């Protein structure tokens, strides 16, 4: 797939999302959970950016803030050169047609009281993209696209397996022919055998419709398979961002190195030489993050400068960005 580097479909600049903490009878604000704390990246048209990190690091919050499901505390999000933060009402609703989301849990994201036809057809009706018989035809076509029998349109979600439900979620996301889709851990709730099928489906659809994905995941091997660029997130900040091959061959940030060392190697002889990096301690609370570098409390190479100032997210090699004082 050809990729024009100048064609940035999504630009995120210093995005912050703080959730207030209230205490006492009068519910006074006593602090904030810094779920996302100054995140910047670009997504190029027609490619996939993988966003990885452990649970609770702010990946899903980034996704929901980009789509304006949360109102950001600070920062800018530009989609096709339109600043999303300033859109309200009908303008935002029209922009939503171009940006869709596939949710993590196929069991929770589908309304159990609606048939598949109602679920997949709802975006078409809400946005007045189709009416009457046309909705039914479009729904049947969408179900065929994602590998489901169009005759299933009259069934309810509980009649399907997890993998089939996630395909229904994919069909719903495709209904309005978006150009950008956020895949929020779309395979983590599925069996391993089904995960590959769903990822292959996403890749086929990307090829067919020139879709752009922000693919959020825990599974580093799956991210390697589907992504062209990968961003590694820790406690609300991005610590490393580069191309897929560069990240896996030459991880520079200590946290990325620890994550990659935990990926199993199928060859037992290679696995013996495989050096594991075991991180000490627990992830700090985003309500009270450490001073300076967020990762310093668990970092095996931390020095005094790491506590004093927050490392700048800088380009250490062409296209390879790292937030670490000690990476030269």
What does this entry look like structurally?
This protein has 328 residues and is an alpha/beta fold. It has a domain at 8-98 and 178-239: Rossmann fold (3-Layer(aba) Sandwich), CATH 3.40.50.300. The chain is 31% helix and 25% strand. The chain has eleven helices and twelve strands. The chain has helices spanning 59-66, 89-96, 116-126, 133-145, 162-174, 192-209, 220-226, 244-249, 254-261, 268-273, 304-308; strands spanning 8-23, 28-44, 48-52, 74-79, 82-83, 99-102, 180-184, 212-217, 229-234, 237-243, 313-317, 320-323. The protein has an eight-stranded mixed β-sheet with strand order 6-7-8-3-9-10-12-11, with helices on both faces. α6 links the parallel β7 (180-184) and β8 (212-217). α3 crosses α4, α3 runs parallel beside α5 (162-174) and α5 (162-174) packs parallel to α6. It starts with 7 loop residues before the first strand and ends in a 5-residue tail after the last strand.
What are the key terms here?
single chain, 328 residues, alpha/beta, Rossmann fold, eight-stranded mixed sheet, four-stranded antiparallel sheet, 11 helices, 12 strands, globular
Task: Give a nutshell description of this structure.
This protein is an alpha/beta fold. It has a domain at 8-98 and 178-239: P-loop containing nucleotide triphosphate hydrolases (Rossmann fold).
């Amino acid at each position: 797939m050809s990729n024009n580097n100048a064609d940035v479909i999504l630009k995120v600049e210093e995005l912050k999302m703080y959730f207030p903490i209230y205490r006492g009878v009068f519910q006074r604000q006593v602090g904030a959970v810094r779920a996302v704390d100054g995140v910047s990246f670009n997504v190029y048209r027609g490619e996939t950016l993988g966003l990885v990190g452990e649970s609770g690091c702010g990946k899903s919050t980034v996704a929901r803030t980009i789509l304006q499901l949360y109102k950001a505390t600070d920062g800018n999000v530009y989609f096709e050169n339109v600043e999303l933060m300033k859109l309200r009402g009908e303008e935002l609703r029209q922009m939503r047609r171009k940006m869709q989301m596939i949710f993590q849990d196929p069991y929770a994201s589908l309304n159990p009281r609606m048939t598949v036809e109602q679920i997949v057809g709802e975006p078409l009706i809400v946005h007045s993209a189709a009416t009457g018989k046309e909705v039914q035809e479009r729904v049947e076509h969408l179900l065929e696209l994602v590998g489901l029998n169009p005759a299933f349109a009259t069934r309810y979600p509980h009649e399907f397996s997890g993998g089939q439900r996630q395909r229904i979620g994919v069909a719903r996301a495709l209904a309005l022919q978006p150009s950008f889709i956020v895949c929020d851990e779309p395979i983590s709730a599925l069996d391993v055998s089904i995960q590959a099928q769903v990822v292959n489906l996403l890749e086929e659809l990307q090829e067919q419709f020139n879709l752009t994905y922000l693919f959020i995941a825990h599974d580093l091997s799956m991210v390697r398979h589907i992504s062209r660029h990968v961003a590694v997130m820790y406690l609300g900040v991005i610590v490393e961002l580069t191309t897929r091959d560069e990240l896996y061959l030459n991880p520079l940030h200590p946290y990325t190195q620890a994550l990659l060392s935990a990926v199993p190697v199928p060859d037992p002889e290679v696995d013996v030489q495989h050096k594991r990096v075991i991180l000490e301690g627990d992830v700090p609370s985003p309500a009270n993050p450490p001073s300076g570098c967020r990762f310093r409390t668990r970092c095996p190479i931390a020095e005094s400068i790491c506590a004093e100032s927050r490392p700048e997210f800088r380009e250490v090699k062409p296209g390879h960005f790292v937030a670490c004082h000690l990476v030269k």
